[in-house]
Write a structure and sequence with these properties.
The chain is mainly alpha-helical. The chain contains 4 helices and no strands.
Amino acid sequence: MITVTEMFKAKLKEITDLSNIINKNDKHKILSMIKEHIDEIEERYNNKDEHWAIETADLIILCYELLLLEDKDIDDVFDRCLPRFDAKLKRLAENAS
């Protein structure tokens, strides 16, 4: 399944390369930024601050960036993830009824 366009992948690669220079290849810095964004999204969402949506996009970019820094193929990761996620939700839905 193609989850991102080639143009988006190119921009992600550009962002990842720049971030890698700034963060000096420190993947733990990316993980720290992911945690910070989760807290900020929750706070803004709970305060009905619509900026939570932009912060959510930032979080997605950081997650993609971590995948790229680890040389993971985003489409392959989603090909494996989505069926697994779907199966879990179906099991939970069955148990909820």
